[in-house]
Structures are given as structure tokens and as C-alpha cells.
Amino acid sequence: MAFLKGHGTENDFVVLPDREVDLDLSTARVTALCDRRRGIGADGVLRVARTGALVERGVLPGEVLDEVAADDWFMDYRNADGSIAEMCGNGVRVFAHFLHASGWEERAEFVVGSRAGARPVRVHGGVDAGGAATVGDVTVSMGRVRELGTSSASVGGATRTGLGIDVGNPHLACVDPALDAAALAALDLTVAPVFDHDMFPSGVNVEVLTPLADGSVDMRVFERGVGETRSCGTGTVAAAAAALRTAGESAGSVQVRVPGGAVSVTIGPDDATLRGPSVLLARGELDERWWDSLG
Ligand SMILES: N[C@@H](CCC[C@H](N)C(=O)O)C(=O)O
Fold first, then answer.
1. Catalytic residue among 85, 101, 145, 232
2. What is the domain extent for residue 44?
3. How does pLDDT run across 200-256, given as a tens digit for each residue?
4. Is-catalytic flag, 174?
5. Are residues 125 and 13 in the same domain?
6. Taking the model in full, what pTM does it have?
């Protein structure tokens, strides 16, 4: 059973190429794979298959084919706790990079399906440069950013007000005018945020960020189903939208710095784009006896 390990701004993933959709991604297997002591260690798992094959094998409902073609690749994403999330912005860059590095996809521009819908991607550097490279550079069209209104959460030792944002998955992006990069870095994000369950019945990813200055912000995140991560792609899009809104703008480009690096986000009226790096650092084989023992 082949696997790869990759990350996008240090938000890390185990990639499972599974064209035939043979793998049963049970909660026990995903949590073990993502465990940093008894597994490979990761924030999430990306199964790589075509949409049609996932529908045929019952992993996805047939309605997904209303939005994504059967031949399109589909990022079957799991959080480290085994839960399924609609979308992962760093994951989709690593996913697209893997497709090039493996030779499974030769086009520089193609569509990746997700539970949040189709996400067109562009692998920069052309097919040859992208092909075998360890480091990739990918732009993802993230769809329309929907504002859900304000809410507050207890996070990082204080109650903060933020903007609820749907980027395919739910976010609460809290711009704190009292924070600079150093104060943000000093926050304790080990405790899970307490948020409004009426507003976010399926849970929420919570971002804390500095106000927009010179076209950039600093952000940290506590992810639903994972905990604090060193980056969250959908979170950077939510953060950029909240920072712009707080500055009185509804569109624009923002550089978002996270503990694991930096990405570029552009927010428009009907679409947002996310551009950033992907690193594929290891390939290997999982022991099938270990996998089977997890059930
Ligand atoms: N790290 C991801 C987001 C992964 C899903 C998230 N934890 C959720 O449950 O919504 C990203 O890069 O966007």
C-alpha cells in the first residue's frame, strides 16, 4: 500500500493513491495514520481517486456528479480525528502537486472535486518542471466566499469577535486590533475554542489574526477535527476576507503569514484564489498487516 507524505505551509498530510478505491478509511485507520507516535503523523489524510470510482464504491453519493464530472479527480479528505471535512485549501495544492509528480495528470490546469464542489487548480512551472519536483507551486480557485455574520468565541485566552465565513467549510475569523505578530505568536492555542453551536452546528475552524497592514496579515488557527495547525488554506481565505471587511473593503489581495510560511489570497465578488507552495517529502509502503489490524 503506497503512501506519500506532503505539506502545504507545514499543514501536513498522508497522501493515499487509491485509484481503485480499495481502501476502507475507517476512523481507527485515519487516526492511527495521523498519530505522530504510532503512525506516520499528519493533520489529515488525502485519498486520491476519480470521482466516478468513489461514487461507484459508495464513498460519495451520486449527487456529487451534479457538480463534479466522473472523470475529475476527487480529494477525499479526512481530518486527523477521522472526521470528514468538505474542503482543505492546503490539501488540494498537495493533491494537485502529487498528481503531477506521479504522472497521473499531465495538464497544468484541471479540476479537483471536493465535498464543497469543484475546485479548479493550476500547477505553476509547467508540466515538466512540476513533474518530478519535490516543491510545487499551485493556485486553487476556492469558489465564492460567503459571509455568515458576526459571532464570538473564547480562544487564545480571551473572548474574541469574528466574522463567520463559509469557504466550503465553516470558519470564524477573528481580527484583533490589539495584536501584532509577536503578541499573536505568544497566544496559547492549546485549548479548544468555545464557540456558538447554534451558529456553527457542525463545528468551526477558528482563526485569530492581526489587522491588515501593507497588504498582509499574520494568522494562527485552531482547526476543527485537528487542533492548532501551522497553516490552514481555507482559513487563510477566511482570514483575508475578514481582514479586508474590517478595513472597509470587500475585495483585494492579501498576503497571509502563518507559522508554517505564507500564501497569497485574492478575494473577488464571485471567487477567491489561493496560491502557495506544496512539498512532497517522502514516499513509502504501509505494512498491510498493520493496516488490517486496525480494522
Ligand atoms: N487544513 C485545511 C482545512 C481542513 C479541514 C478543517 N479542519 C475542517 O474540519 O473544516 C485547509 O488547509 O483548508
1. 232
2. 2-143+278-294
3. 999 999 999 999 999 999 999 999 999 999 999 999 999 999 999 999 999 999 999
4. no
5. yes
6. 0.97
